[in-house]
Amino acid sequence: MGRSPCCEKAHTNKGAWTKEEDQRLIAYIKAHGEGCWRSLPKAAGLLRCGKSCRLRWMNYLRPDLKRGNFTDDDDELIIKLHALLGNKWSLIAGQLPGRTDNEIKNYWNTHIKRKLLSRGIDPQTHRPLSGGSAAAASGLTTSSTAGFPSPSPAPRPARPVIAIPPNVMFARPTPSEDGHSSSGGSTDAPRCPDLNLDLDLSVGPPCSPPKTPAAAASTPTSQQQQQQKRATICLCYHLGVRGGEACSCKTALPAGFRFLRPLEEGRYI
DNA sequence: AAGAAAGTCAACCGCAGGGAG
DNA sequence: CCTCCCTGCGGTTGACTTTCT
């Protein structure tokens, strides 16, 4: 098709952002809101491509970002979500308010992978590694919840949930639909046959940054409307059930939700 | 104290999906 | 219905920092 480059690469900066660039970007977004990333750099006086601006904002400058260490609860939630969703970092990030997909992806690759390996669990398949000596050596059990340690007795803090009513069935993904899934590993058996996700979570408000006062006060433009639409997209949308009975955007959340895993062909949780 | 190795994380790249015209 | 544009996502890279020898 001949995709046009996202920007004039010859006149754009690359690499680390300077404080001045950050300030320009923040100031522009505060004044005009997010969106239209392609034209933003020029409008904001930045010699960056739109993608770079978006990334910088999403991963670093957004005011609602939570910086700092992940808690053990965060770790376990990420592990469970990864077992459920695979490398869908944006979806996983959506369940961890204030965290970005990039941050979680990095954290997974640098910390959690090792943590799982030390437990004798394959980070990709979430199944015990053959031999399982690592787990035995580390003194950790892999018997419960597909290798996950039993949840701590203390109640888990409230978390957003992927809430799917019991009567919802995901469309069976075709190989072409899901062929790019990077979940990897063998599909001979369910990845987490006895996975007890313990996701006693609930959908929280979208964690999109606050819109600009000006934008909120004035009649929304189509762009702003689009932003608002995006901001209210629920996880049902991501999982392909938006608009159906499962979608909590339309109806109050009924009780008795459960997870369904659409990622592995022909297999559901 | 210096150099090497390992770890961390911000940023880039290319692709896919959705929507507008 | 088709084409093109824009946005978002996931994988990867490379610079920087920390730890080890």
Automatic annotation (TrEMBL):
<keyword id="KW-0678">Repressor</keyword>
<feature type="domain" description="HTH myb-type">
    <location>
        <begin position="62"/>
        <end position="116"/>
    </location>
</feature>
<dbReference type="InterPro" id="IPR017930">
    <property type="entry name" value="Myb_dom"/>
</dbReference>
<feature type="domain" description="Myb-like">
    <location>
        <begin position="62"/>
        <end position="112"/>
    </location>
</feature>
<feature type="compositionally biased region" description="Low complexity">
    <location>
        <begin position="213"/>
        <end position="225"/>
    </location>
</feature>
<dbReference type="Pfam" id="PF00249">
    <property type="entry name" value="Myb_DNA-binding"/>
</dbReference>
<dbReference type="InterPro" id="IPR009057">
    <property type="entry name" value="Homeodomain-like_sf"/>
</dbReference>
<dbReference type="GO" id="GO:0003700">
    <property type="term" value="F:DNA-binding transcription factor activity"/>
</dbReference>
<dbReference type="InterPro" id="IPR001005">
    <property type="entry name" value="SANT/Myb"/>
</dbReference>
<feature type="compositionally biased region" description="Low complexity">
    <location>
        <begin position="129"/>
        <end position="149"/>
    </location>
</feature>
<keyword id="KW-0805">Transcription regulation</keyword>
<keyword id="KW-0238">DNA-binding</keyword>
<keyword id="KW-0539">Nucleus</keyword>
<dbReference type="GO" id="GO:0000976">
    <property type="term" value="F:transcription cis-regulatory region binding"/>
</dbReference>
<dbReference type="GO" id="GO:1901141">
    <property type="term" value="P:regulation of lignin biosynthetic process"/>
</dbReference>
<feature type="domain" description="Myb-like">
    <location>
        <begin position="9"/>
        <end position="61"/>
    </location>
</feature>
<feature type="domain" description="HTH myb-type">
    <location>
        <begin position="9"/>
        <end position="61"/>
    </location>
</feature>
<keyword id="KW-0804">Transcription</keyword>
<keyword id="KW-0677">Repeat</keyword>
<protein>
    <submittedName>
        <fullName>Uncharacterized protein</fullName>
    </submittedName>
</protein>
<feature type="region of interest" description="Disordered">
    <location>
        <begin position="122"/>
        <end position="225"/>
    </location>
</feature>
<dbReference type="GO" id="GO:0005634">
    <property type="term" value="C:nucleus"/>
</dbReference>
<dbReference type="InterPro" id="IPR015495">
    <property type="entry name" value="Myb_TF_plants"/>
</dbReference>
